[in-house]
Amino acid sequence: MSAIATPQTATTTWNIDPAHSAAEFKVKHMMISNVKGQFAKVTGALTLDEVELGNSRIEALIEAASIETRDAQRDAHLKSADFFHVEKFPALSFKSTGIKIVKDGELAVEGDLTIRGVTRKAVFAVEGPTPPAKDPWGNTRIAVAATTKINRKDFGLTWNAALETGGILVGEEVTIALDVQFIRA
Q1: DSSP symbol at 116
Q2: Which residue, 43, 1, 55, is CA-closest to 19?
Q3: 2/62 Cα distance (integer angstroms)
Q4: Which residue has the higher pLDDT, 18 or 50?
Q5: CB count, 10 Å around CB of 148?
Q6: Contacts for 142 with CB less than 8 Å, ≥ 6 apart
Q7: What is the C-alpha separation between 110 and 105, in angstroms, rounded?
Q8: Which end of the chain, C or N, has fewer beta carbons within 10 A?
Q9: CA-to-CA distance for 92 and 78, rounded, in angstroms?
Q10: Which SS3 state, helix, strand or coil, does residue 1 take?
């Protein structure tokens, strides 16, 4: 009589802590400098397979109307139909479809990124997750940092203005940077 070995899994669920997470972006303005902004409302969950990291999954949701660029007039324009059209498309989302270990402590997380109702594949370069740490209230936390670059026109964000001196007002390439802290559910 032989025993069949059952694979051991250590799958845990972690929720994004919105108070300790940031979803930021930067884009060229007038072709000379970057304008940065962030979204204040980020939610989501990570299903972490600690034995087989590649089997982990992440889903995140960003409230489009929570955009902040430190300029009320620009924020209003970004919320309008020219850009995010927040009344019709209230959220940006990401759902992973694959996770690969690039090297120790670095991952490539591929998934479906949806902005303005348009879904495209995106790959985030991810540092982490960090080792778990206990906070003063007894919660266990981990964190990741992730970056990617997208072309905003691929997501229907096509508004622009020509400059008198040549060039355009808003660049097409957008860098997205995420610093996310998770609390174990």
Answers
A1: T
A2: 43
A3: 51
A4: 18
A5: 19
A6: 14, 48, 128, 129, 130, 131, 132, 133, 181, 182, 184
A7: 16
A8: N
A9: 13
A10: coil
Quickly tell me which residue has 């559910």 as its tokens.
185
* Span 126-140, pLDDT tens digits: 998 899 999 999 999
Both ends of the chain: CA-CA distance in Å?
40
Other beta carbons less than 10 A from residue 21's beta carbon: 21
Identify the CA nearest to 38 among candidates 15, 85, 73, 70: 70
Q: How far, in Å, CA of 92 to CA of 24, rounded? A: 13
**What is the pTM assigned to this prediction?**
0.88
**Dist CA 56 CA 58 (whole Å):** 7
What is the residue whose two structure tokens read 């304008």? Answer: 35
The structure tokens listed for 69 are 């660029």
The answer to whether residues 30 and 154 touch, using CB atoms and an 8 Å cutoff, is no
